[in-house]
UniProtKB/TrEMBL annotation:
<feature type="active site" description="Nucleophile">
    <location>
        <position position="405"/>
    </location>
</feature>
<feature type="domain" description="TRAM">
    <location>
        <begin position="1"/>
        <end position="58"/>
    </location>
</feature>
<keyword id="KW-0949">S-adenosyl-L-methionine</keyword>
<feature type="binding site">
    <location>
        <position position="330"/>
    </location>
    <ligand>
        <name>S-adenosyl-L-methionine</name>
    </ligand>
</feature>
<dbReference type="GO" id="GO:0070041">
    <property type="term" value="F:rRNA (uridine-C5-)-methyltransferase activity"/>
</dbReference>
<dbReference type="InterPro" id="IPR030390">
    <property type="entry name" value="MeTrfase_TrmA_AS"/>
</dbReference>
<dbReference type="InterPro" id="IPR002792">
    <property type="entry name" value="TRAM_dom"/>
</dbReference>
<feature type="binding site">
    <location>
        <position position="378"/>
    </location>
    <ligand>
        <name>S-adenosyl-L-methionine</name>
    </ligand>
</feature>
<feature type="binding site">
    <location>
        <position position="309"/>
    </location>
    <ligand>
        <name>S-adenosyl-L-methionine</name>
    </ligand>
</feature>
<dbReference type="InterPro" id="IPR030391">
    <property type="entry name" value="MeTrfase_TrmA_CS"/>
</dbReference>
<dbReference type="Pfam" id="PF05958">
    <property type="entry name" value="tRNA_U5-meth_tr"/>
</dbReference>
<dbReference type="InterPro" id="IPR029063">
    <property type="entry name" value="SAM-dependent_MTases_sf"/>
</dbReference>
<comment type="similarity">
    <text>Belongs to the class I-like SAM-binding methyltransferase superfamily. RNA M5U methyltransferase family.</text>
</comment>
<feature type="active site">
    <location>
        <position position="405"/>
    </location>
</feature>
<dbReference type="GO" id="GO:0070475">
    <property type="term" value="P:rRNA base methylation"/>
</dbReference>
<keyword id="KW-0808">Transferase</keyword>
<dbReference type="InterPro" id="IPR012340">
    <property type="entry name" value="NA-bd_OB-fold"/>
</dbReference>
């Protein structure tokens, strides 16, 4: 296959990134937005030695599972790259990904539950970070076209809470009104790089974060005053990111107006969330995810539990009433401060949170002789480290409840726990990210000796 060649190809599978997979002359071709069962004419965009990437020119035979997507651009841009597949089939796709990863690791005897559907299928995101750039002489918000930094202007982001889109558009209009320059990546000049908006779904509180090249700019006071007038906005920050980087947030947040956090609820608990703290994105599904994890832990009043990768303490604090003691560890200091605060706010007195890397604190605790009954882990995509797993096992937990946002590292880590005498019989995918290929799972590892 060669660049710009048009090939006719039958799509036989979906890749983990939700690209249609087909074969031409024994070589694999990945076609954006194509679905299994379809025959498409596709244009080769990039050809490598044994495989190629392509985009659809014409659908010759359409899948009955194809959904006509209202926002085709955003789907192509990767914002919601599964949106062209019916929701039922999205759930089945996610389950199958987990089944196949387990099979590849020769762990076929572990059962995979049906993916737990999300109550909200669109408009579920309680946080958005969108790029700000100048397009045709005007400041725009939108998304970067796939594999590029070309901004496609957008007002309806499809998976965002519509209240968040309302505020994004209102802030965009204020920036235009006060002639604030958008960031220019090539010249490393201008001001606003990204807009972040977070919403406490239970309270309606909205936080706006202007992610900027400089700490201050001409008109910042007027812009802040105007944003504070937007209905529902309770908190405004400036995040300073002076680096030439693709990383969205800089290290420092400057409080501009209002509260220093927003409030939200999970179940009957209230949480204060500051700008850089992790909070589960899909508020409609989070209580169901935590319930599954806590039910599977089968907690006892005498239990000592660890909440590792604890964020603002949501899992440990949700479990605290069932157990004797909770100890949490989290690397982001502001999140640990939030966790301590949240324990106080909810009058929970048996939970302590510590700042540090889980792979460093867990070995320290194990060396100090800590004994645990249940360990909850909820790491980022790269999963756990062997050092963490060794130390966790040393504290003797009967169960390790693993919440994972990357099934590939989950399967790797299940094997590591199995090597240390733990068993696993069921992985439950939970759909936290409808319309995207991202997969969240919950599973429990049980000690056998
Ligand atoms: C997927 S989030 C889970 C947060 C929380 N359990 C929740 O449900 O909201 C992962 C968390 O791990 C934290 N983290 C990342 N690397 C870490 C490390 N090496 N040690 C401890 N925490 C870490 C991140 O800051 C983030 O808060």
């Amino acid at each position: 296959m060669q660049k710009n060649q048009i090939v006719e190809v039958e799509i036989t599978d979906l890749s983990y990134e939700a690209m249609g997979v087909g074969h031409v002359d024994g070589e694999t071709v990945f076609v954006t937005n194509a679905l299994p069962g379809e025959i498409v004419k596709a244009k080769i965009l990039k050809a490598k030695k044994n495989f190629a990437f392509a985009k659809i020119e014409e659908i010759v035979k359409e899948s009955p599972d194809r959904v006509k997507v209202p926002l085709r651009q955003s789907v192509q841009g990767g914002l919601a790259s599964l949106a062209h597949l019916t929701y039922d089939k999205q759930l089945a796709f996610k389950k199958r990904q987990v089944v196949e990863l387990l099979k590849k690791a020769h762990l076929d005897d572990i059962e995979v539950a049906d993916t737990l559907e999300s109550p909200l299928k669109t408009g579920y995101r309680n946080k958005a970070q969108v790029p700000v750039r100048t397009v045709k002489g005007q400041l725009e918000i939108g998304f970067f076209r796939r594999h590029s930094h070309d901004l496609v202007p957008l007002e309806d982001f499809f998976t965002n809470d519509p209240e968040i889109d309302r505020v994004l558009v209102a802030v965009r209009d204020i920036l235009r009104e006060y002639h604030v320059p958008a960031y220019d990546e090539e010249k490393h000049a201008g001001e606003v790089r990204y807009l972040e908006v977070r919403r406490g779904v239970a309270t309606g509180d909205l936080m706006v974060v202007l992610i900027c090249l400089h700490k201050d700019f001409k008109g910042l006071k007027e812009v802040t005053d105007a944003i504070s007038e937007i209905d529902g906005v309770k908190s405004i920050f400036l995040n300073h990111n002076p680096q030439k980087t693709n990383v969205i947030l800089g290290k420092h947040d400057y409080h501009l107006w209002g509260k220093k956090y927003i409030d939200d609820k999970i179940g009957d608990l209230t949480f204060e969330i500051s700008p850089q703290s992790f909070f589960q994105i899909n508020s409609s599904q989070t209580p169901r995810l935590y319930k599954l994890a806590i039910d599977q832990a089968d907690l006892k009043p005498s239990d000592m539990i660890v909440d590792a990768y604890s964020g603002i303490g949501t899992i440990g604090l949700s479990a605290a009433k069932y157990v004797r003691e909770v100890r949490g560890v989290e690397v982001v200091k502001a999140a640990v401060k939030d966790a301590k605060n949240n324990a106080r706010l909810n009058q929970i007195h048996n939970a302590k949170y510590y700042a540090g890397k889980a792979e460093e604190l867990m070995p320290k605790w194990a060396d100090e002789g800590l004994k645990t009954d249940v360990i909850f882990v909820d790491p980022p995509r790269k999963g756990l480290t062997p050092e963490f797993i060794d130390a966790a096992v040393k504290t003797g937990p009967e169960k390790v409840v693993y919440i994972s946002c990357n099934p590939a590292t989950l399967v790797r880590d299940i094997q590591l726990f199995m090597d240390q005498g733990y068993t696993n019989s069921l992985v439950s995918p939970v759909d936290m990210f409808p319309q995207t290929p991202h997969i969240e799972c919950v599973t429990v590892l049980k000690r056998t000796n």
